[in-house]
Amino acid sequence: MASKMTTLEDLYIDTLKDLYSAEKQLVKALPKMAKNAQSPDLQKALQEHLRQTEGQVERIERIFQELEGSPRGKKCMGMEGLIEEGNELMQEDAEPDVLDAGLIAAAQKVEHYEIAGYGTARAWAQRLGYDKAARLLQETLEEESMANEKLTKIAESHVNMEAQ
Question: How far is CA 139 from the centre of its chain?
């Protein structure tokens, strides 16, 4: 049975556990997406983001060390759904450029989902006086934003044109 949420801190911890689950799921999903990507730019961007995601998992673990708790114990259903959408796309018989355009769209949905989650968690960390955690969450937020911008550039530079 889930514990009762009575404070902002309870909600903050629950949100961090959700983000942890999301990142762990992404660590498993990104290599498959990179392998299915046709564009070398897109492959490289997804592989880079895999390394970043591993670092983001470690940041959440560091935050929980300070809280003297565990980030485990929750499953992020939102990320599970987003990854499932990506998996469905990869099973389609799609032209390579069309697949890449779809993979970029799937990856950007993931980035936007994470940006929303990390922005909220950072705001709550600040409100609760967890300054170190807020700084770590801000670092992740900046990485997610940069990854999203990089995907946009790849899409605009060639993938979307070639998929027309």
Answer: 13
